[in-house]
Design goal:
globular; six-stranded parallel beta sheet; Rossmann fold; 15 strands; single chain; about 375 residues; seven-stranded parallel beta sheet; alpha/beta; about 40% helix
Amino acid sequence: MKVALVHELLTMRGGAEKVAKVLADMFPDAPIFTLLYDEKKLGDWFPKERVRMSGLQNQLFPMPYALLPAPYRFNHHLYLKKFPSAVEAWDFSGFDLVISSSSAFAHGIITNGKPKHLSYIHSPARYLWDRTHDVLERAEHGVLGTLRRKFLERTFHQLRIWDSEAADRPDHLIAASQEVQRRIELYWRRESNVIYPPVDDFWFASSPPPGAMEHPDYALVVSTLVPYKRIDLAIHACEQAGIYLKIVGEGPAMASLKRMAGNNVEFYGYRALDELKDLYRSAQVTIVPGEEDFNLVALESMACGTPVLAYRAGGPLETIMEGKTGAFFDAPTVESLAQALQKFRRENFDTDACRTRAEDFSRAKFEAKIQQAIQNVMASK
């Protein structure tokens, strides 16, 4: 069976890219179609010889993606209008099966039932649906804010029409969580099956105990640094609660977050897996401050034996066992998170319980469910 894989943007290491990597490992001969590709950042996960780009990258940029100024690398709103026609231009007629990994556009490829199309949905594009107003409010700041907002309002309207129509194209939809399944039904009026993203075996593997950490009683955030992740809540809440905070991750909000952070906050940027495992294992708690579609960070932390404190919404409600592997704060405010941090005690949570819960989301279980979904879609008429 000839298989092709599709993932919109291979430009950063996030949860969706981790799922795409597992799919790429499951089908090592499958080419990977994408709109934008940063070889410097993701070449070790997705080798250049496997990547098939749409041609859009060469049309948009006169230089390699990694060398572009930050506004062009991080602000994909600049060329959103071009994405639908780019994914529709790919020819999959030589394949038996296409598996798309979609957070915005990949589900909109055209196969017309031959080959079969199985689409793994991380979420319908949130900036087109439930986060539209947040994005527009941020866009209108600055000298050209009014023009930016008007441009995005028109663009989002056009893309919502396209998105609703394109959602009928896949033969079968897989949702990354029950929360995503709810959105698929709400916005697209389609049924889907839930297959949770897997936590990598690496996080369970035994390794030497971490060395002594500077500021040992610290909280940890691991995230791409974008506004909707609400890292600002963690920064202000830790300052209010008198807790040292370590932040691992990169993204366009890095500069603004550094400006608001006090002396109790340390930014680590990107960290290799061994270093990140040590940070997880030594932390008092891993904080998930925003509303998440699923959130693999919570599972990675639990696999390392460290409990999680998350906002009571979205994907973490499906993974964290309250009082056993973590806790929740109830409102997306500094005060709510600060109060929860002041009450949180790692000794109240069992390391083995955290690891056992994470094992429910193993890679082996994910692969078995994906293979069953493939059998079902290939057998369908």
